[in-house]
Amino acid sequence: MPFPRMLYPLMVLLLAAGVPLVGSPGAQAGDDFGPLELEEVADGVYALIGPTGPRRADNHALNANFGFVVSGDGVAVIDSGASPAGADLIHEAVRRVTDQPVRWVLNTGSQDHRWLGNSYFKQRGATIHALAATTGTQKRFADRHRERLKGTLDAEEAAAIDPVRAAEPHSGDRARLELGGRVLELRRFGDAHFPGDAVVWLPEAQVLFGGDHIYVDRMLGIHPFSDVQQWQEAFHAAMDLGPERIVPGHGGVAAPAKAQAQTGDYLDWLVEEVGQAVEKWEPLSQVTDRLTKAAPEKFKALRHFDNWHPTNVSRTYTQLEADL
After folding, report:
1. Which residues contact 90 (CB under 8 A, 6 or more apart)?
2. Distance CA 200, CA 78 (A)
3. What's the pLDDT tens digit per position in 1-58?
4. Given 6, 100, 171, 235, which is the most exposed site by the fewest CB atoms within 10 A?
5. What are phi and psi of 112, to 5 degrees?
6. 43 burial class (0-12, 13-18, 19+ CB within 10 angstroms)?
């Protein structure tokens, strides 16, 4: 309904003061919430895209992607940030889109920014959902991540972190959840960046929140506790779901072809090339040097290639050698 003409002067004053008007549009694609940029991926499905650089105090360690789904009975948030302060930024984006409450938080992984904001949403009545394999790894890494964040976040923000996990984690590798007519599936296809990593699949929208299975625009990172071969298999299994759009764990919203080119092809190339070198007993230092120089240009163009690629080669070699 249009505003009465007599109220126009008041409307101008309110808008100048930054006060939203009833009936005015909420958050728009491209709006920023701290370090996060909002993007509507499908009807009622939103991505929050974080920076691809390092964790810092000024980005609240939100150097990753998050999301939320608006249903007829509340909102489901996908991953909660690295602290209550980070979770509040995610919540701010939700509030700008809808006045519905956050009913659920789904965790795709155990790295700090995937779940250490859970306590913020739990205090506001949300239920935390995660697979048991994910919560098991969260428990293992909680103290390590909190200690590390003390060196990154402001002291007060770091001190507020309470590592809340799902009270009733879902057993097995799949949980089908329905909220207000929207189906969200937690799916685990194998260990990836961290043990217990999962994805969130929205079958009706054909949108995949890939968690740390999928990186675009930047080089993925293999840790000593990552499983390279499982990650490779898990990536392809996730892609077999047939997503039309992908919200990766890091980087911009992508079509399947881009995810395949920058994560799938890289894992395939890494396992194949390093595997051949291991079978030939080629020395590790020689393999790392050779495969850094010989890497396809599309991988060298990814951010953090110089820092992560030699480490990825080395850790893949060590894992494949142990399997001989």
Report:
1. 33, 36, 48, 66, 68, 77, 80, 81, 117
2. 8
3. 333 333 333 333 333 333 333 333 356 655 788 899 999 999 999 999 999 999 999 9
4. 6
5. -45, -50
6. exposed
Q: For residue 263, give Cα distances in angstroms to 116, 191, 193.
A: 26, 15, 12
**Distances from the Cα of 158 to the Cαs of 61, 105, 123, 291, in angstroms?**
10, 21, 17, 39
Residue tagged 């675009």 (tokens): 216
Residue labelled with tokens 């919560």: 135
Question: Which residue type sits at 249?
Answer: G
CA torsion 225→227→228→232, rounded to 10°? -140
Q: How far apart are CA 76 and CA 28, in angstroms?
A: 19
The whole-angstrom separation of Cα 193 and Cα 243 is 21
> 45-92: per-residue pLDDT in tens?
999 999 999 999 999 999 999 999 999 999 999 999 999 999 999 999
Identify the residue with better confidence: 7 or 322: 322
Amino acid at 17: A
What is the rounded distance in angstroms from the CA atom of residue 91 to the CA atom of residue 288? 43
What strand order describes the sheet that includes 245-250?
A: 174-179, 182-187, 199-202, 207-215, 245-250
Residue 195: closest CA among 114, 305, 312? 114
Strand order from edge to edge, sheet including 32-33: 32-33, 36-42, 45-49, 65-71, 74-78, 102-106, 127-129
Using CA atoms, how far residue 205 sits from 43, 190, 202, 221, in Å, is: 8, 24, 6, 29
Angle between helical axes of 265-279 and 228-239 (0-180°, round to 10)? 150
d(CA 247, CA 211): 8
Element (H, E) at 143: helix 132-150
